[in-house]
Amino acid sequence: MAITDILSAKDIESALSSCQADDSFNYKSFFSTVGLSSKTPDQIKKVFGILDQDKSGFIEEDELQLFLKNFSSSARVLTSAETKAFLAAGDTDGDGKIGVEEFQSLVKA
């Protein structure tokens, strides 16, 4: 499954263009612009499955750093500060990674 099966290419392009500069990534505005906030829990779970590159059932810090690349191979990697802030926002149980329920909550925040 491709991410464009769930999200429109136009929305992805718009969301990526809003965070091209280092340290400009804001997960809330990204999720809203890309259209993920308005998707069903099942659709959000499918996007989670795409972001979970190693299929561990969690999005770890290294996968979060490459978050934008899941939407476009030409997108930048997140800075260390962006990655840590993103992880801190999503990791509600403190295990150092984001599970599917945590991701769903983060998207709907």
Automatic annotation (TrEMBL):
Pfam families: EF-hand_7. Keywords: Calcium, Metal-binding, Repeat. Residues 39-74, 78-109 form the EF-hand domain. GO terms for cellular component: cytoplasm. InterPro entries: EF-hand-dom_pair, EF_Hand_1_Ca_BS, EF_hand_dom, Parvalbumin. GO terms for molecular function: calcium ion binding. Ca(2+) 1 binds at residues 52, 54, 56, 58, 63. SUPFAM superfamilies: EF-hand. Ca(2+) 2 binds at residues 91, 93, 95, 97, 102. The keyword Cell membrane does not apply. The keyword Flavoprotein does not apply. In muscle, parvalbumin is thought to be involved in relaxation after contraction. It binds two calcium ions. PANTHER family: PARVALBUMIN ALPHA (PTHR11653), PARVALBUMIN, THYMIC (PTHR11653:SF3). Belongs to the parvalbumin family. This is Parvalbumin.
